[in-house]
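Our preliminary data section would be incomplete without showing what the modeling component actually yields. Below, a chain of 299 amino acids is followed by its predicted structure, encoded as tokens that our downstream tools consume directly.
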Amino acid sequence: MAENTLFRGLSAFPITPADEVGRVDTDALARLLGRLAEAGVDSVGLLGSTGTYAYLTRAERRRAVEAAVEALGGRVPVIVGAGALRTDEAVALAGDAEAAGADGLLLAPVSYTPLTDEEVYGHFAAVAGATGLPVCIYNNPSTTHFTFSDDLVARLSAVPGIAAVKNPAPAPAEARATVVALRARVPAGFSIGYSADWHSPDAVLAGADAWYSVLGGTLPRTCLALTRAAQAGDEAEMRRIDATLHPLWELFRRYGSIRVVFAAANLLGLTDAQPPRPILPLDGAGRAAVAQALSGLEG
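Predicted structure:
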């Protein structure tokens, strides 16, 4: 497999501002994306879990992609979430993203009925076969209730068009062994990346290719500096920057990252949008904690 440079470095995942009936505020989205482009992030992860893809209609998801591609104007590549319960819906969403100018896809095995490995394999093979865009496997057990084994990732890595994986980051002490073990199972050029912000920089330090970052969509300059330190093997600098983010990591674990980044975006004056119901915004105490954690970080 030829190396795909799309799935490398910091992929920043912004929220998707929308009103109470799920209509995307494309002007607010463009402002958020402009901030990411100015910071120099390596890619934008549009309509990921932070981008509330599961709460938006197909039409609104396409509007978001079209607005993002227009706003970024080729300055930053766009990786678009195409997850859906049905395979035909995921194929349609992938086609929409491709037609709107996306550069790659992020695909989660969204489920209600628990899925088997064979079902997930068939789902991914169908989507990858229906698009010319490279596909990143989105392994997010906390939301999909499906966990990709290294065996399944290795099997999918042989499917034409499937170019990357986004895994939950392991504990720092396990990062190097985890990256090395999976690297041995996949073709050269297949990208291994991680999410779970509070552990992902350690995974990059250990040799992972990408950090798919929730916080990167709100504090891109800080997260990019953290990524570059990890990529350079500068552990001291990585630890220094990471220490400034420990209060936010703690709030992510306490409240869930989506509630925290919506509050952060509000507090930074980026948008007034709230999470989609039934998700409730943080209460006064929670917002105060986020404000304190943001103190001294980029505005």
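The chain has twelve helices and eight strands. The CA atoms of residues 41 and 136 lie 18 Å apart. Preliminary results of this kind motivate Aim 1 of the renewal.
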